[in-house]
Amino acid sequence: LILFASFILLYEYYHIFNMRPFNVNFYITYSVVAITCILTYLNYLDYIFFLFLLGFIILYIITSKTFFLYSTFSIIYFALPSSLLVFLNHNVVNGKVAILWLFTIVWATDTFGYITGKTFKGPKLIKLLSPNKTWSGFVGAITGAIISSIFFCYFTNYQNLYKGALFGFLIALFSILGDLFESYLKRKNNKKDSSAWLPGHGGLLDRLDGFLFAIVILSLLTL
């Protein structure tokens, strides 16, 4: 499922930058992402750095300078969170609970942010990056994430409530940063959505942009 999702995410990333998918450049990039996940699953973590280095060298040789930057960044953008998700699921005690906790916080961030933003409106958060996000939505997103995290920790005993509140805040913050970052990429390239595969929601990248950042901070907090 992770490998399939990574393929779709990379396709949509190429669409944002108006790069032609399904070429040599695309498949080399995806191969690095996929092999990174497989190496993580097999616990061959020492080889990942050399895999990244090899991928960067090949892309540098076969692509233009502009596309090289976009392609090499996409390796980090997708390989890092994907492999961390595999690692949490396969190598960490209570890793599956941590992943469910992460989804709970990210979904709460999106849901409460949308509801409070639409209800109270008010000043824009960062209009240059995302014209629709407001400070009221930001506050609602953080508050909803903290409350959801506390409830999750209370009923599962995964973390104490103080850590639940603190980690909920940090994960929500990084989820919002991931959302803003993807919004910046789309605005930079005059795109409204990463794709039209999910009617009313855009693409898979539009749904998982916050998760890509949130999985990294979760890993730093729990590993």
Structure described in brief:
This protein has 223 residues and is mainly alpha-helical. It is built from eight helices and two strands; from the N terminus they run H-H-H-H-H-E-E-H-H-H.
Describe the protein's architecture and organization.
With about 220 residues, the protein is mostly helical. Helices cover about 75% and strands about 5% of the residues. A two-stranded antiparallel ribbon has the order 1-2. A hairpin with a 3-residue loop joins strand 1 (about 125) and strand 2 (about 130-135). Helix 4 (about 65-90) crosses helix 5 and helix 6 (about 135-155) crosses helix 7. The longest helix has 28 residues, at about 160-190. It starts with a helix and ends with a helix.
Mean pLDDT: 89
The coarse silhouette is flat
- Report the sheet with the most strands, covering strand number, pairing sense and barrel closure: 2 strands, antiparallel
Estimated helix fraction: over 70%
Kindly estimate the percentage of residues that lie in beta strands according to DSSP. Answer: under 5%
Q: Cα distance, first to last residue? A: 23 Å
Uncertain parts: none
Radius of gyration: 18 Å
Q: Strand pairing plus helix content: what structural class?
A: mainly alpha
Number of helices: 8
> Going across the major beta sheet, what is the strand order?
1-2
Question: How many beta-strand elements?
Answer: 2
